Amino acid sequence: MGDLVITNGHSTGVDKAASRIKQRVLNFGVVGIGRMGQLHALNILRLVPQAKLVCACSPAKADLEWAETNLIPHGVAVFPTFEEMVQFPGLDAVVVASISELHYQHTKASLERGIHVLCEKPVTQTVEQLQELVSIVQSSSNEARLMVGFTRRFDENYQEAAEKIRAGAIGSPVVIRSQGCEKLDDGPFMHSYVVNAARGGGFFVDSIIHDIDLTLSFLEAGGLPAVPQSVCGFGTAAHFKELEQGPYRDGDNVVGMVQFWGGQIAFHYNSRTAAAGYDNQTEIFGTHGKISVNLVSKSNRLELSDNSGVHASVLPSWYDRYKPSFVAEVIAFTDAVLEQKPMPISLESCITSLTIAQALQESFRTGKKIDFDKEGKRI
Ligand SMILES: NC(=O)c1ccc[n+]([C@@H]2O[C@H](COP(=O)([O-])OP(=O)(O)OC[C@H]3O[C@@H](n4cnc5c(N)ncnc54)[C@H](O)[C@@H]3O)[C@@H](O)[C@H]2O)c1
């Protein structure tokens, strides 16, 4: 653990205070080494100077085999269970990248041991669970910190958009339109992923929550209250027909509209069936101008013109779009913990985004508009 004397899970309050002053490197574990966990583990190993990957866990044989080649040779201890991993001596922080249904359980157990958590979205499946985690973080007897991995906030384009709004470049935001459309993947992983996502809260909670979070960041940047007044969700299962059945009915193309108490309107659209590639774009319409981010989604600036038209290559996936943002996210989290600075994303905003996402999912499933009072409580 860098030059730290005593470790988090086992130290007294006084020891902790002394250790934080000296601590320059945060010892990380990664919970769940599937798609996201592998990305986080490699980022921490290679690209985050103030973080050290000390352990990881997954029950899946394929993940453990991957770790044998990619983590164990770098001195990372790998465990088949979270319960074994979380007891690793000197563990300071974890990235929770397990399946969504387990985020609450893994985050709560880590926080209760005084371990800082960077949790993939969705952090919990209910607002009540998130409020419980927030109260653990806020309790005076616990110094552990929590951040939800809303990756897009660490993208330099969205950061510049927020800065411009803060500087008044478009006046006051009025309408925000944000969409994230993934290229259709008809493989077995995606078929099981969409069903798991439906069980874990649905497409709004699993994915549109990124767009909702961006909307909240732009309202915050504009100094506007981000309190929902009413929400309405729509959706359809255009390709993944298995989503039409059962209690966890979901869509693979969904639209979530939100009216805020300040008068602002947000339109969020997500799809899992885009034909060309990852089409992720955002527009913020203000009283004196408009900001657009990525309206034509391309992998680079090259265009080929020939006798059949003008051609550009597509961006294959969210992974390609946000690869640097995942690194920036862990750096920002590590920095906030080591320097005792506020987390870049407030937990209050995470409660609001989850509240909106859940209400949108419910509105889509029930066909009813959902209203909130001026304090953001369901009517
Ligand atoms: N921030 C983003 O842009 C983004 C993008 C994709 C996915 N995600 C989120 O990341 C999370 C992981 O998604 P993924 O695509 O990597 O899925 P995945 O299925 O590839 O990975 C999940 C991992 O959790 C592991 N796991 C299952 N039970 C476990 C347990 N008891 N203890 C520890 N690990 C366990 C699985 O073995 C698997 O390795 C999801 O919550 C998803 O919503 C975020």
TrEMBL record:
Tagged with keyword Oxidoreductase: yes
Q: Which keywords does the record carry?
A: Oxidoreductase
InterPro entries (alphabetical): Gfo/Idh/MocA-like_OxRdtase_N (IPR000683), GFO_IDH_MocA-like_dom (IPR055170), NAD(P)-bd_dom_sf (IPR036291)
User: Which Pfam families does the UniProt entry name for this protein?
Assistant: GFO_IDH_MocA, GFO_IDH_MocA_C3
Residue ranges annotated for the Gfo/Idh/MocA-like oxidoreductase N-terminal domain, each copy included? 26-149
Question: Does the record bear Disulfide bond in its keywords?
Answer: no
Task: Enumerate the spans annotated as GFO/IDH/MocA-like oxidoreductase domain.
Answer: 158-291
Question: Which family does this protein fall into?
Answer: Belongs to the Gfo/Idh/MocA family.
* PANTHER family associated with the record: BINDING ROSSMANN FOLD OXIDOREDUCTASE, PUTATIVE (AFU_ORTHOLOGUE AFUA_2G10240)-RELATED (PTHR42840:SF3), NAD(P)-BINDING ROSSMANN-FOLD SUPERFAMILY PROTEIN-RELATED (PTHR42840)
Question: What is this protein's record name?
Answer: Gfo/Idh/MocA-like oxidoreductase N-terminal domain-containing protein
